[in-house]
Amino acid sequence: MSTSERFDCHYCKDSLLGKKYIMKEDTQYCTKCYENLFANCCEGCSSPIGCNCKDLSYKDRHWHEQCFQCVKCSRSLVEKAFAAKDELLLCTECYSHEYSSKCTTCKKTIMPGSRKMEYKGNSWHETCFLCHRCQQPIGTKSFIPKDTGYFCVPCFEKQFAYQCCSCKKAITTGGVTYQDKPWHRDCFLCIGCKKQLSGQRFTSRENYPYCLECFSNLYAKKCVGCTRPITSLAGAKYISFEERQWHSECFTCMQCSVSLVGRGFLTQRDNILCTDCGREK
């Protein structure tokens, strides 16, 4: 047989006529040479994956079909869902038992793909995360933790929240205490002008709260000089004489306007005068 008629293995030069061979990049190899040169090594048994075997691959790693199995339970993973952990392959059931979250209530595994609730490092099946009072699933609704339980907002308000003494509705956040009674901040108002008093200076009369302005206008004594209210709540000093009152800055001589604070003075009818102006009269 001429050289041009020969059909040999590219590597060992054995004739391939009448034998099984494999082509790689337009070059022919006998099966033995091909396996020695190019066959992938199985991750499971460390043996070459021969030409007569199915080669299963995952992320540049290769297995014999019979070696492609869960490292925990040894069940075949061929054409089945699986997960990888630290380069180890596991069936979904083994992966869930080993690595998935456990429900805080029922202690069972929360399977991958199922809905779960999480709060402060704890996990629940959606159907296990219940209101401590009504035992209904909380789901994605707002809830309030209390001691070791969790409450939907309506149940928390019924069981724990203070009731505003003004509107009689539950106080869920913040609030103001006045005379040992709870109020919403928006409900704690001046009895006169209805201005919100939370965070403001205020006073009371007959157990009713007043802003300083309303209290002054309604109950404070009026200055004889300027007719404006005199109130010590704002830090004002005043002079009192014969049931009449003046702001300190308004207590001046009717004639020359000199301040009479700490000085002697004379009266003329309803007027007050310094001693100099009084002598002139």
What's this, in brief?
This protein is α+β, with helices and mostly antiparallel strands and 281 residues long.
What does this structure look like?
With 281 residues, this protein is an alpha+beta fold. It contains 5 helices and 22 strands. The protein has a two-stranded antiparallel ribbon. A two-stranded antiparallel sheet has the order 3-4.
Low-pLDDT segments, ≥5 res: none
Number of helices: 5
Strand order of the main beta sheet, please?
Answer: 1-2
* Order of helix and strand elements from N to C terminus: EEHEEEEHEEEEHEEEEEEHEEEEEEH
Distance between the termini: 158 Å
- Structural class, from secondary structure content? alpha+beta
The best one-word shape is rod-shaped
Strand content: 25-35%
Radius of gyration: 47 Å
The helical percent reads 10-25%
- Summarize the biggest pleated sheet: 2 strands, antiparallel
Strands, count: 22
Mean pLDDT: 86
